[in-house]
Amino acid sequence: MAERTAPRTLGTGPGRALIAVYGIFALSASARAAVQIGSKFSEAPLAYLLSAFAAVVYIVATVALAKGGEIWRRVALVSCSIELAGVVAVGLLTLFDAAAFPDDTVWTDFGRGYGYVPLVLPVIGLLWLRYAGRNRVAA
20 to 30 A from 44, CA-CA: which of 53, 61, 68, 127? Predict the structure, then answer.
């Protein structure tokens, strides 16, 4: 029976696909925020700052998942949790007070503009972190 001490590497198996999707979202959210802030910040500062915040969350999650290890697993857990809370909060706000967001963010309408991937991605990330944390292998 294997001793259950070392966490499974987060970047193996399905974790690789998860890291790739997070990386794509980190790039796309960063580019979107940069363009929005650089060209029309005064039109919707809250929306554009939220896009920038989302980009930072995606970057941190990508790095944490890629690095692996216990500390980075915890960082990924916090990042995915913040992402899920953010997409749900912004999604609800855009449903009930669309005027507060005159332009879209990555999380507007629960990530509708990105095929709802921003809503599903943190759930998959949290499930992967739980699975990888529970399936420990011998060091």
Answer: 61
